[in-house]
Amino acid sequence: MSKRAVLEVIALGVEDAVAAQAGGADRLELVTDMAADGLSPSAATVAGIRRAVDISLRVMIRLADGFAAGDAERLVRVAGELREAGASEFVLGFLDGGGAVDLAAVERVVAVLEGCPWTFHRAIDRAADRDALRKQLDGMPGLDTYLTAGASGGVDEGLPVLLAEAGRAGEPGYEQRLLVGGGLRLDHVPVLLEAGVDGFHIGGAARPRGWDEPVSAELVSAWRAAVDGS
How confident is the model at residue 2, as a pLDDT? Predict the structure, then answer.
């Protein structure tokens, strides 16, 4: 029996979190400000969601739109505040001006996380060299997942890359779970499952009327069935 695929849903607040859990999500990605592609939520939001649901929460560490780290001191402070609010899993990823991983910024933040599990997010889809990025991050404490669409334009564009990377699972730099998200549709799921992908991430796809409306438990349930292959 193969292990169940992970379904992660973006949550902006308690209402989203409760609906996502009811629909069968395994994990939430907690963010605020989707107009900026998702920034760190407040410590109060994290604490409130932690009280409301009992599934895993991955909390975004990102202070501004784009993939530059910006103020590293502030990033470290925010990471510490989120940990104090009860966060124990995280999402982050920083690139330098040339599109390489900003190793110094990642290392500073990861040091504060003290081994907590974390996802390197879709900054990988903007990297100048995906393979080099993965190899540079290989062995980084806590890194267990890459959130990726395979390309900056989304899963439609990135599908060949995702299938190729799934085929390299277990190689150095490719031991982390592939969590596919970014323009993911239900019709992509069977192809990805067949390739061995066992992580799926949805945001807008869980919201029937866009980001101004909350997550729909019914839509999450439909995704749950799809990623379970049923």
Answer: 53
